[in-house]
Specification:
By secondary structure, this protein is an all-alpha fold. It contains eleven helices and no strands. Helix content is about 80%, strand content about 0%. The protein starts with 5 loop residues before the first helix and ends with a helix.
């Protein structure tokens, strides 16, 4: 087993202490807020212990809805982002390339030239229409609140499926709204990742004989996927927190259970503390995963290098060079 150098051990210890300090500060801020709100009244920890298990199904439902909508939104986001990267030739250049020949040509050849020109124009038209539709979809999702989207989809389900079970209708409407919403945001993430790869790499791959799909599959996509992993997980965190809006349409997720118990048992402070802790536990844990993957899959040369230790690849190269 390779022995870690003292500098690496110190950096690892400092990172651990930094994480512990961040958790301690967060807990202290939460405790101070609860103390200010509660005043002289202390928290009923016995009630919190009895009720904690009641909130877990709501947390599980929120995680399940977030995971399902995020996974279904992945192909939607990728297709949207890839469509937004399509760039056709300018109309002036296309018109000059498809100009009819000045010299007379035989009729069979003229038919072939006309069919070729028609296919080129049709492909260019389809690319432009698809790109504009993808642009409109992304702008619609990013330009309107998720709350409005949830209510719109829920209203559509109620109008077209009036005899359905209200709970299942709310679940289906919430899943569809969250999927459509995250698909638009993921489309923008994938577009940024694909366009971050320099066009010269694609041209070099085509020059050595790779097809366009082969160049995309072997050159562009492996780099673009590594670039999009951290922002995609950040989108998953934001989507999980936005799932709390589903309680307005009757989905029995964590916020809905908090509201129902708070009105029924008048223990708002204890319930608020438990719900806050549950949200923090999930989001902070996922954010640590994001930080690890960002360091692990960072591509040297893209963005700003980490301040401490570098990436795993650069550390290995440094050790090999030193040997």
């Amino acid at each position: 087993m390779e022995e870690r150098p003292p500098a690496a051990l110190r950096r690892r210890s400092l990172a651990t202490l930094d994480t512990i300090a961040a958790i301690g500060i967060t807990v202290a801020i939460l405790a101070a807020f609860v103390f200010l709100v509660a005043g002289r009244r202390s928290l009923d920890f016995a009630y919190m212990a009895r009720t904690f298990g009641t909130l877990l199904p709501g947390l599980a439902l929120a995680i399940a809805l977030t995971g399902a909508s995020f996974l279904i939104g992945l192909p939607i986001g990728f297709l949207t982002g890839w469509t937004r990267t399509l760039r056709g030739e300018p109309w002036a250049k296309l018109r000059a390339r498809l100009a009819p020949p000045r010299e007379p040509v035989p009729t069979p050849r003229m038919i072939g030239v006309a069919l070729y020109a028609l296919s080129v124009l049709l492909i260019a038209f389809v690319k432009r229409v698809a790109r504009r539709m993808a642009d409109g979809y992304v702008e619609l999702m990013r330009g309107t609140p998720l709350f409005v989207q949830i209510f719109f989809v829920w209203s559509v389900f109620i109008v077209y499926f009036p005899g359905g079970d209200p709970t299942l209708t709310a679940l289906a409407a919430g899943l569809v709204a969250m999927t459509v919403n995250t698909g638009g945001y993921q489309g923008e993430i994938f577009r940024g990742g694909l366009q971050a790869i320099h066009a010269g790499q694609l041209e070099a791959a085509r020059a050595i004989g790779l097809s366009r799909w082969g160049a995309m599959r072997n050159i562009v996509l492996p780099q673009a996927v590594r670039l999009t992993i951290p922002p995609l997980l950040n989108e998953a965190i934001a989507l999980f927190k936005s799932s709390s809006l589903l309680f307005f349409i009757g989905v029995h997720e964590l916020t809905y259970l908090y509201r129902q118990l708070g009105f029924r048992e008048a223990r708002v402070l204890e319930l608020f503390t438990m719900v806050t802790v549950l949200y923090l536990l999930f989001t902070v844990s996922l954010s640590r995963v994001v930080s690890f993957l960002e360091r692990r899959f960072r591509i040297p040369g893209f963005g700003i290098a980490p301040a401490r230790g570098g990436t795993l690849t650069t550390r290995r190269l440094a050790r090999k060079t030193a040997l």
